[in-house]
Design a protein that fits this description.
48% helix; four-stranded antiparallel beta sheet; 12 helices; globular; alpha+beta; 414 residues; 10 strands; four-stranded mixed beta sheet
Length: 414
């Protein structure tokens, strides 16, 4: 049985039956999660994204896209396989950047499922949000230690986590980009007295373990060995984490979209309305067709971006396009499914209402659609300018003027 079939069978037989124990206020019982993870290990599906050296399956991005999508058919699936956000992205970052000692202390227990983690970058206004250059949290040297001060906002998974990867401004180090403040990443144990959870923020989506938290960092002292990677290279490492992480988000959420369509299609086949099944009504059939088409397109975009990463590209452009399209596709598909199922859709008898609340946030985190569209447009315009510079291209209409170069005439109509 291949990876897709094995993962689908595991989610169908072990994970989905446990969804009735998932509560938006209290989460999922720890003992039940422990049992699901034991079953995932037995099925050979645990930590698919992590290298075998650290206890994972060692899959590449294309292979992960298959497993993550199937896991995403349930909100519990990624948790069961230990490939949920933010832990999955933090594991990737630690594998790429951490020292051997840091990997033993933080990565190994994270992969084993003994602890959870969080990524503390976003800040309340006027601090960093979609614009990382606004980072205000600071870290200064004091002898052989670092002292961190600042505030963090909407830090997913913070409650109950074992440690945080915290981004802070630092004066040391050259940094990668002179347009941004110098920043560094620090590994901070959550029991550090200077790193305090202020509150768990009430939120539209309620399916993340540990919720979304506000954190106050006051004279938080960490040793030199808490620095993750090189001082001053925090923004570079953020890109190491964020490009693959936004793609793995797409993989998981596409599973939610596919399951929503499956539920809607089954309902449309069995629900009678005006003398025929609901699915035979043209407007319902159109919604089902649009959802199936958009899911297919989204899946192909994910696979292509995964291929770019697997073959050594940074995939910043591809993952921005994929994240934008998939986030909006998932929202449309779940909305249509809920509409098709009517009162059953908005009831809690089906998972669609929970999906609906959860997927709306996907258009915001990991960069809102508007920011990604800016990145995409900037790249298109840059490429067009390079073509004009090298080939003498001028806009259509200008090519008829006497002063137009022969090179421009050859480019006419492009």
């Amino acid at each position: 049985m291949d990876l897709k079939e094995r993962t689908a069978a595991f989610v169908r037989e072990y994970v989905i039956p446990e969804e009735r124990y998932l509560d938006e206020h209290t989460g999922f019982p720890a003992e039940k999660l422990k049992e699901l993870r034991r079953q995932a290990r037995a099925a050979g599906l645990f930590a698919p994204h992590v290298e075998e050296e650290w206890g994972g399956m060692g899959l590449n991005m294309r292979e992960m896209s298959i497993v993550f999508e199937e896991a995403g058919h349930s909100l519990l699936g990624p948790l069961a396989l230990n490939c949920s956000a933010p832990d999955e992205g933090n594991m990737h970052l630690l594998e790429m950047v951490a020292t051997q000692a840091q990997k033993e202390r933080y990565l190994r227990p994270l992969v084993e499922g003994e602890i959870r983690s969080c990524f503390a970058m976003t800040e309340p206004p006027p601090g960093a949000g979609t614009d990382p250059s606004l980072l205000r949290t600071s870290a200064v040297r004091r002898g052989s230690d670092w002292v961190i001060n600042g505030d963090k906002w909407y830090i997913t998974g913070a409650e109950g986590a074992g440690f945080a990867i915290c981004m802070a401004r630092t004066e040391d180090g050259q940094g990668q980009d002179s347009r941004q403040p110098r920043a560094s990443m620090f590994l901070v144990d959550m029991d550090n007295p200077g790193f305090q959870i202020v509150r768990k923020i009430p939120s539209l989506d309620a399916d993340f373990a540990g919720g979304h938290c506000e954190i106050a960092i006051r004279d938080c002292v960490v040793p030199e060995e808490a620095v993750l990677g090189a001082v001053g290279e925090g923004f570079k490492y953020a890109q190491v984490r964020l490009a693959p992480a936004r793609l793995t988000h797409c993989m998981r959420w596409l599973g939610v979209a596919q399951r929503s369509l499956d539920i809607a299609a089954q309902y449309a086949n069995t629900r009678e309305s005006f003398g025929q099944s609901l699915g035979k009504h043209q407007m319902v059939a159109e919604m089902i067709a649009d959802s199936a088409t958009e899911i297919h397109a989204a899946r192909l975009m994910i696979w292509h971006a995964a291929w770019v990463l697997d073959t050594g590209g940074n995939a910043k452009y591809e993952t921005s396009m994929t994240k934008t399209y998939v986030a909006e596709t998932v929202n449309r598909v779940v909305d249509r499914a809920l509409q098709i199922c009517g009162s059953h859709g908005i009831s809690m008898d089906l998972p669609l209402a929970t999906f609906y609340r959860s997927v709306r946030a996907f258009r915001i985190y990991d960069g809102p659609s508007e920011i990604h569209r800016t990145v995409i447009a900037r790249q298109v315009l840059k490429s067009a300018a390079q073509v004009a510079q090298t080939e003498g291209f001028v806009p259509e209409g200008a090519a008829t003027r006497p002063e137009t170069t022969e090179a421009a005439r050859r480019g006419e109509g492009l």
